[in-house]
Amino acid sequence: MAAATASPPPPAATINRDVKPGVVKLRLVGFDVLRKVRMPRRTDAGPLRVPVALREDAMAFVRDYRAVPHQLVLGATLSGKSMFLRNLITGLATQPVVLVGIDCKRGVELAPFAARLSALATDPEQAAELLPALVKEMEDRYDLIKARQGIASGTPDEEITSDIWGLPEDERPAPIVLFIDEVAELFLIATRKEEERRDEMVTQLIRLAQLGRAAGIYLEVCGQRFGAELGKGATMHRAQLTGRVCHRVNDEASAKMALGDIAPEAVYAACAIAAELPGPAVVGDTSGGWSRIRTPHLSLADAAATCRETAHLAPEVPALTPFRPYVPPMPVKAPGPAAASQPVTD
pTM, whole model, 2 decimals? Predict the structure, then answer.
């Protein structure tokens, strides 16, 4: 018997949303807006708010780090996961935000954005050095908050309910967004020595996910699969990632890993994404709500150019200086034959 396939959304749909008690907003969409993405001219952008995709109701999907501090992005090869990440990085590049990357594929995904990155690790060994530096930066920010509020220095971090946004603007450290591409590479091991390193990195990731929000440190974790089979601490880390984005995956189990624990009915929508249409995804959060989205196309050259143009906006973080990636200077184009043959006049 052939497997049943989910039918595409109807050409017209009505979206209902409760605005306030007694008021319901109706929005009629007469065509499939995800077939050819055109972002709205006016979007709800702002500090740590990036319009990164279009929802099926023709509204912009805004990645808001203040509301959803940490997010898990899953997707198979050529599913659109890299395009989602590319739009997100370029959106944050124009803001005074510290961007940090861990890309264990030798940096092939994040290296084009190196001009805007304050730190970049391209293999597990470098990641094992970068993560403790981020944890130390987080602890220093907690000390700053405690000093400002007069809290005793011995107070456990877990008992502090305030965050950096309560500090005066001239004392407030810049927020940090950590992008992890192919997170499974941090969990895979081959020797006993690598197992010890893996356990340390997983512990540091869990600490950043549990305590980082108050210190202004946010996580964007990407991968093809993420579940208990990765090893100790994997599911505990996933539970700390409030936002979920699931592109096309190769099996139903992967969709369940992304959405099954927060919106079970969204799993079927994720499994219905066709391979011949890259980009669509299902997004949800721990509130149980979910919707279909699709990221607009952004070329790698344009994204890299934006990062080079906004390199001066990268805030200085002394703890991350040793991990700043080297960016070679742009080659200078030689003058053409016509320009070189012209005589020089006073």
Answer: 0.84
